[in-house]
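Bench log, entry 3. Co-assembly request; chain sequences pasted below exactly as received.
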Amino acid sequence: MLTVACDAKGNAAVEPFIAAAHQQHPSVIDQQLLVAELYDTRNVPAAFWIDESGRIVRAADPIYAQRRNRETGEVTINTEYLDAVRDWVAKGRDSAFVMDGSRLDSRLPELEFDDVAAAAYFHLGAYLARHGEAAEALDYFKRAHALRPENWTYKRQAWSFGDIERDYGTTFQEAVKDPASGPFYPPLDLTD
Amino acid sequence: MPKATLLYQDAEAQVDAARVDGDQLWLTLSSLEAATGWDLEPEGVCKSGICVPVPDARRSELIRDDLFNLTAFADLIQQPVAHDKKNSIWYFGPAGWEWKSRLTSRHAPDFTLPDLAGRSHSLSELQGKKVFLLFWASW
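Structure output for the full assembly:
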């Protein structure tokens, strides 16, 4: 188990969550979001299963181990997904939850130049925002969003540096409905 | 020479910009290796065992006297570049051979990152075990 915080605001932003989780596993911080780029994660959470030889066998699962209902406070444990992980731990490649080649390919698409160009604009924007140039950063964040509207990491991280309505002329609810952005999360498709 | 901030993926350096033409950034050949890891050798432009030959047709675009055009080189190796003129900052992303087929090989790319205490952890340290790798964020 290895958790990666993709957070341009760094330790200060993630420390309270890590402290509350009492983790037993390595918990690392990707302040430059370079590892998020390396795995082409387009939103969080995103989970990958990697086998003993270093091969990816499931990719980019949008899963929560537990969710809290905002109104009732009720916590639901995602037992279906946890059981799938346990099944893989027990059976390895024979687990029904290991993705076949075509499903993996759909989760791990070949990158195009626009993907890395969008990443370059995003990284420049994040650098400026971290160095107190939030207004300057806007232009580069917007270029990244225009090139890769389906990348929610670029949007959500950019919004966290300013005000979504003032700076981007939208709201979270409107942005989620924008057809150009595609789905907020891909379908989980545990087994098809 | 004017100063520029060079973000070469995860490495940040203050460099002397020998010449800036619009979005084009020229460094002196003597400062190239310290700033980027690339060095001009007889085989081409080399870094950690990789040499990129300089095509004759593009030589004058890349190298003039003791100056090297880092942005033209980025174009040659399909590296994305983002430039902020006001603050004189250049970001250079991965080269084409690094980003193409990065995930389609299905081999999990290795990485090293610090934890809250600053201790480094690498994915490769877990080889031989099954790894559940989870990306999350506060935003």
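Helices of chain B lie at 29-36, 59-62, 70-76, 96-99. Residues 29-36 of chain B form the longest helix (8 residues).
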